[in-house]
Amino acid sequence: MSETVRLTQTVQKGGCAAKVAAHELRALLARVKFPPTDPAVRVDGSTFDDAAIVEINDRLALVQTLDFFTPIVDSPRLFGQIAAANALSDVYAMGGLPKTAMAILAYPVAKLDRQVISEVIQGACETLSQAKTSLVGGHSIDDETLKFGLSVTGFVDPRRVWTNAGAQPGDVLILTKPLGTGTLTAGLKKGAWSENEMAEAMDSMSQINALTDLLSDTPGIHAATDVTGFGLAGHGLQLAKESQCGLEFSFSHLPLFCKALTSLTAGHLTKAHRTNAEYVGEEISFNESLSPTQRLMMFDPQTSGGLLLTVDPDRAAAILSRIQKRFPRASAVGRVIPSPAARGSAAARLSVEP
Amino acid sequence: MSETVRLTQTVQKGGCAAKVAAHELRALLARVKFPPTDPAVRVDGSTFDDAAIVEINDRLALVQTLDFFTPIVDSPRLFGQIAAANALSDVYAMGGLPKTAMAILAYPVAKLDRQVISEVIQGACETLSQAKTSLVGGHSIDDETLKFGLSVTGFVDPRRVWTNAGAQPGDVLILTKPLGTGTLTAGLKKGAWSENEMAEAMDSMSQINALTDLLSDTPGIHAATDVTGFGLAGHGLQLAKESQCGLEFSFSHLPLFCKALTSLTAGHLTKAHRTNAEYVGEEISFNESLSPTQRLMMFDPQTSGGLLLTVDPDRAAAILSRIQKRFPRASAVGRVIPSPAARGSAAARLSVEP
Lengths: 354, 354
Prior knowledge:
The structure is a homodimer. Chain A has about 350 residues and is an alpha+beta fold. Chain A has two domains: about 5-160, CATH 3.30.1330.10; about 170-354, Phosphoribosyl-aminoimidazole Synthetase, Chain A, domain 2, CATH 3.90.650.10. The first copy, chain A, is built from eleven helices and 13 strands. In chain A, strand 4 (about 95-105), helix 3 and strand 5 form a beta-alpha-beta unit. In chain A, helix 2 packs parallel to helix 3 and helix 7 (about 230-245) runs parallel beside helix 9 (about 270-280). The N and C termini of chain A lie far apart (about 50 Å).
């Protein structure tokens, strides 16, 4: 039955690494004339934020997001859990609480055992239960390869939305989960690692990014985004641009999964490692002491990665210790600096120190 | 550029015909333990209704639905328009007004010209403009074949929701669009018809099912559903079961696209013609005078098909004439009858008369 199928072997690219590259997306959307946007839409795709915000009244707004991908792991149930955690993440990244989800499912009906698909959906349902989110519908089609994901709607108080545009120079950067799922899952697909060997990354990808409930009464969170397919550098750059600031990372403070650097050194890469580096381009500078492998980690595409928060430096220690109760490997990984323009220089927006 | 690609030739199955068959879906969902549903969720997938209803307060509820598919036509812009009209339809089928949409996009980045994808999105945006719906986000992946669709959220007054559970014996059945898109698009894919020859069906598939604004002050609409991949018989059966009634169709009153019967006679079929017939099984009976081709029309999978309404017989003429201002081929196609159980018989739920 399902045990005989290795899901990662049924697809070319797994997880967020299959995402269309940011530069490609910008190029094709540049030619489109979009419909007029309702004034109630406070945040939409144009700011490259994680989710849309649609105001219903002055106390309630919808947070909406959608994500789906090909299998990133071999176990169907785990794939469903990860896909759900990944889709829910954008709602959490905006400070919202997810409420409803609809399933996006495509699979080869004749080739893939029905039990495999039931297990994928079961895994997603378990994660939705943890997130107190109802599965209210969905759509399924017969397709060459398996894809699964969710469209998610949450609620947020419009006065308490976290966006990627609020970072202030001096803020401390907090990253809630370790990096390295891109290279580790690429190695898994090649058979270099087993799911057991990368259990820490598996657990991390299936953990929901729920912070809203933990931090709802906590002031000092200025901006947030979730770190997924475009990597820490790609999502960091989007946040820096929208906030009109720069970011300085301290490499030694970045939480990394066990074996992640080894896996990069061994050359377990996805196409997204290259396209993410191209997307960030000259906007990142590295301390010369950092090795090529260490630099590559900044572009590693994350699936169900953590949240990147920018927080008031006076409150950073208290906020971090709260977050660590749920995400033990959360770390302070750098700080927000003025934008290169404000500094009167032509320097890069992102810098990575040792 | 885009003119050189015939989109229907890039996929095995087009449009709603690619939908996973109803019996397959039931079988795989039967094994899943779903998360507990929030009491605010008034309608979810379990009733096979068109969209979910999530109550926000006693005057406002969300209507949520999601739909995507492979190209059903060759023109990218037209495909985008049809995909959008099809996805919006479920919101209209519940008596709602769509507000926001998120795009679901998968395509072979290296193989398909970027301009083709821009045109698909442009087509969708034009339809969203007509529906006064904002495009607020989406997700795109690199995939073997093109797929496009939308997740749509609308608003509805919870006291005025149209569901598939309210039909009453004696109601008149109104169908707003002609039937036949399944066989016509199968013929198009084989090169038997050109897009010009089936212009009426093309226009119909790209027309939004907006009736809510037209009928918002009109009493007497008891139930509604939209007719898509499971065909008139499949969606009619779901409505009949949820309403605990039977339906009697008059074949000669069914609006059919020009060439639809010819196309069926010529054998332009999809797999869904068979799976839809299997799904309905013994629950349909045909007058013996109806030909095999005429019977097959009841199972023709519709893409962006019309709405099937059941209305108070005393108001049916007035409602139909209102609908015809926007949908000139809308017709009264039969009536609601008591369920076989109520009639004390083992007869089928659906019957088709000449």
